[in-house]
Design goal:
Blueprint: H1 13-19, E1 46-50, H2 55-60, H3 67-79, E2 86-90, E3 97-100, E4 103-106, H4 111-128, E5 132-136, H5 138-145, H6 151-154, E6 166-170, H7 173-177, H8 182-203
Helix pairs in contact: 3-8
Length: about 210
């Protein structure tokens, strides 16, 4: 059983957002507070995909509202990437965690859990039809580009994919929070902003007709 068994007949974003709460396509629903679906305008020009909701997202029911999401907002602003033009979502819709004392710690979803959840992401892509697709981290990138794809080898370059005319793979902002050295952390954040700026350039009014539908 996968998420495909729980997709609604109508594939609009509101219908998908309602239906995802009943998804039992993998065991992750059993320990999650709720499914966390994507958010943003239908037909947004760009879509950003992360790995899965975290602790704060699981409780709030909204994507990218935890520490990594707040950092992402700062980096997007620095890159000139308007949040109101972006549809944000995750490859996996339920929070996978392991207890550590009273805390719920993020646990990487397995390949089978990612595969089971992929129909939701594919339905979002079909509904939004983004012009620009930004993949944050290995899970998001490999979900849509194949298990052989390596972010470390291909990050920071725009290329055409099955899913969007302009696709960009980069690191997940949570990785930027884990860099202990201040200089390394600053350099990594500057690189991340520079990569987001590539997507912003495509979305800018002066990008030319070729960058638009």
């Amino acid at each position: 059983m996968t998420a495909a068994d729980f997709l609604p007949d109508e594939k609009s974003l509101p219908a998908l957002r309602e239906a995802v709460q009943g998804c039992q396509g993998c065991p992750l629903y059993k320990r999650a507070t709720q499914a966390v679906f994507g958010e943003g305008r239908a037909r947004a020009r760009a879509m950003m995909v992360g790995e899965q909701p975290g602790d704060e997202e699981d409780l709030a029911g909204h994507p990218f509202v935890g520490p990594a999401g707040r950092l992402l907002d700062q980096m997007m602003e620095a890159a000139g990437l308007p949040r109101d033009q972006i549809y944000v979502t995750n490859a996996v819709k339920h929070f996978k965690w392991t207890p550590r004392g009273k805390k719920r710690m993020h646990q990487k979803p397995s390949a089978s859990e990612v595969t089971a959840c992929t129909p939701w992401l594919e339905a979002e892509l079909a509904a939004v039809e983004p012009e620009v697709l930004i993949l944050l981290g290995a899970t998001a990138a490999q979900t849509l580009l194949g298990r052989a794809f390596r972010v470390t080898q291909s990050r920071g370059a725009l290329f055409e994919s099955t899913w969007a005319r302009h696709t960009l793979a980069t690191v997940h902002p949570s990785s930027l929070l884990r860099i202990p050295d201040a200089d390394d952390r600053r350099a990594a954040r500057e690189q991340f902003v520079a990569e987001l700026a590539l997507a912003a350039a495509v979305l800018s009014p002066g990008a030319g007709a070729s960058a638009h539908r």
